[in-house]
Amino acid sequence: MTAPNLSQAGAAEAAPEPGTTPGDPTGLHRVLEPAGVLPQAAQRLDTRRAVWPSEVRVRVERLNLDAASFRQLEQRHRGDDGSVDGGAVRSQVLDIITARGKMQNPETGSGGMLVGTVEEVGEASSLGLAVGDRIATLVSLTLTPLVIEDGLERWDGRSEQVPADGYAILFDRSIAARLPDDLPVELALSVMDVCGAPALTARVVADHVGSRSELVTVAVVGGAGKSGSMSLAAAKQAGAGRTIGVVPHQAEADLLNGAKIADAVVVADARDPVALSSAVREAGGPADVTVVCVDVPGCEGGAILSTRSGGSVVFFSMATSFSAAALTAEGLAADVTMLVGNGYVPGHADYALDLLRRHDGVRALFERRL
């Protein structure tokens, strides 16, 4: 059954007709409410099918919900027996998309990304895409106008990857990458979903390596996950002398040890500042660079305590409280540089895919999750 797209109701009165204006490269012309905000901050987007001259329309094949959002949805619809009501998860995702004209979890503020095929390109688009290109969008679903036309009927609500049929709109400031021919679509999408993490990790680690005569130590919290495993591989490739993978339990420690991408693997609760920092120190820390790749709140203090004075903390979790991070660093008199991983570094998709091809251990971890 096709879900009604309520986000289109009244769109003709609230926004100009496509083609009557050039359209804004950031997508401001698609914002219905509130006025004056960028699409990511909007409560509702215009999802009309017709494209402005600078836009691209994509036929959607698959969505990839971000980890923090999917975890929240699972927890909300988990019964007393521990089982997840997949139908309720599916219904809530449909409700969000229908109401907002985009996928943006109201609890986490996050969305995900998608795979699809280009079906129309505006005459003024500068994205370099052509009709028929099969692509992954590298911008968040929280700012992407989206219409679902199949009711997500092929999705059981139990996985982050969502088979779907519908369309999405890309703006001139959007980012997209053509899918590689040598990797399965599900695997490529999974990698591209987190490709900003390894690219920024490599940049930060390289900066530390270039400025110090001593070996650089890197700790990755959530090292067995998608972004975590890629960040460990990227850190080593960028010149880290020692890499430490932090995981929450022994089962993940066994997986990460088997992947052979960390010099040391430790088990610690990332929400316990003393336990986390002690584990990192015992494994060779404190770290020059600490990368947080877990999707649970409350990891700010432990990451800061695990990092040496003058070091850097990179937060790649949508569950991070940046006010908590700033106030904790201040309260601990911690001289650390804290960075927000925004998901974009030039060349990040190609870099991440190359890491996957080079590291059998990373690929095995990704394939296990699929």
Keyphrases for this structure?
globular, alpha/beta, Rossmann fold, six-stranded antiparallel sheet, disordered N terminus, single chain, 14 strands, 370 residues, six-stranded parallel sheet
Describe the structure.
There is one protein chain. This protein is an alpha/beta fold. It has helices at 11-14, 67-76, 86-100, 185-192, 196-211, 226-237, 250-259, 273-282, 300-305, 322-331, 348-358, 360-369, and strands spanning 31-33, 44-45, 56-65, 112-121, 134-137, 146-148, 161-170, 176-178, 217-221, 242-247, 264-267, 287-292, 307-315, 337-340. It has two domains: 6-179, no CATH class; 196-369, 3-Layer(aba) Sandwich (Rossmann fold), CATH 3.40.50.720. Strand 12, helix 9 (300-305) and strand 13 (307-315) form a beta-alpha-beta unit. The radius of gyration is 21 Å and the shape is globular. Residues 1-13 have low confidence and may be disordered.
User: Helical amount among residues, as a percent range?
Assistant: 25-40%
The helix/strand class is alpha/beta
Rg computed from alpha carbons, rounded to a whole number of angstroms: 21 Å
Give the strand content.
15-25%
Total discrete domains: 2
Helices and strands in order, then pairings?
Blueprint: H1 11-14, E1 31-33, E2 44-45, E3 56-65, H2 67-76, H3 86-100, E4 112-121, E5 134-137, E6 146-148, E7 161-170, E8 176-178, H4 185-192, H5 196-211, E9 217-221, H6 226-237, E10 242-247, H7 250-259, E11 264-267, H8 273-282, E12 287-292, H9 300-305, E13 307-315, H10 322-331, E14 337-340, H11 348-358, H12 360-369
Parallel strand pairs: 9-10, 9-12, 10-11, 12-13, 13-14
Antiparallel strand pairs: 1-2, 3-4, 3-7, 4-5, 5-8, 6-7
